[in-house]
Fold this protein.
Amino acid sequence: MSISFPAKLTERLAAAESVCVLTGSGVSAESGVPTFRDAQTGLWAKFEPEALATMEAFQRNPSMIWDWYEWRRKLVRQAKPNAAHYALANMESLFPRFSLITQNVDGLHQAAGSQKMIEFHGNIMRTICADEGCVIEDYDASQSPPPCPRCAAYLRPDVVWFGEAIDQGSLDKAIALADECDVFFAIGTSAQVQPAAGLAEVAMQAGACVVEINPQRTVLSKRANFALHGAAGEVLPLLIETLTPALSRN
Ligand code: OAD
């Protein structure tokens, strides 16, 4: 694949002191983890993910929702980071300040080596007590859902469901990072879910250069300074390759 990046973009990046990246499920698509809105295959194809990822759905049918997450955890366990995850992990050392905010709950950024990151929507591999919110590591996995060994309430995945609030500390930090960056990337996200989608707006209002990487157009495409249409696993390594000579001169 060959992409030529606009000179204005590479100049802006070469001069950037602070880069902030927001990722969505498109970044894991090339690892074989279906994107959030394309996620339903096989047995789950008839369900909308928005109808499953809610407390109401869990209260109505805890066993079904636990089984859906078991299915997703199985997909994630088989997945390996792809070139986009590795490129983002490399980017940490290329800029004086770099931060990664991910909406993904699959842990693949950490598996690729990313450290400076916020898991905005939690992590599917972590399990919490649905009543007390504490993390539970040992439980009876043969039950669906397993009971909390402390209080017997149901256990649930430590992810943010529709209608639930993002952890306030993570939200405040993400807004501050978007507000102070020189370049903001939105990668592999349909930019539909708030408050994550609003971070690009925060960056834009603060004068950052906003760059989207996505094979499809999204609601953000026409507002972004640059919309790079392609797969993250192809675009990001090429972008780093193009930038490296300019960055190593700095
Ligand atoms: P979506 O499924 O809404 O969007 C995925 C985006 O990735 C789409 O715009 C695709 O075009 C794009 N895409 C697909 N393949 C790609 C590739 N190889 N490279 C780059 N982009 C690609 O997923 P999100 O925007 O992540 O939250 O959804 C946001 C949140 O909605 C999710 O985190 C989920 C839900 O609320 C929770 O489950 C907590």
Remarks:
- The first strand starts at residue 18 and ends at 23.
- The mean pLDDT is 93.
